[in-house]
Amino acid sequence: MARAYHLNNQDLGHSPHRAAPLILGIFFAASTNALPATLLTLMHLLDTNAIDPTLLSRVQSEVDSVPEVGDGTLDIKRLLELPLLQSVYTEVLRLHVDVIIARNLDADIVVPVGHGGEDTPQVRLPKGDMVVAPVWTVHNDSDLWPGVSPDHFDGERFLVAGEKGQKVFSMGGPPGRWAPYGGGRHWCPGRLFAKQEIMATVSVLLRKYNIETAGYLDARGKRTKKPPGVRSKLPGAGVLSLDGDILMRIKRRDPTNR
Question: DSSP character for 94?
Answer without folding.
Answer: H
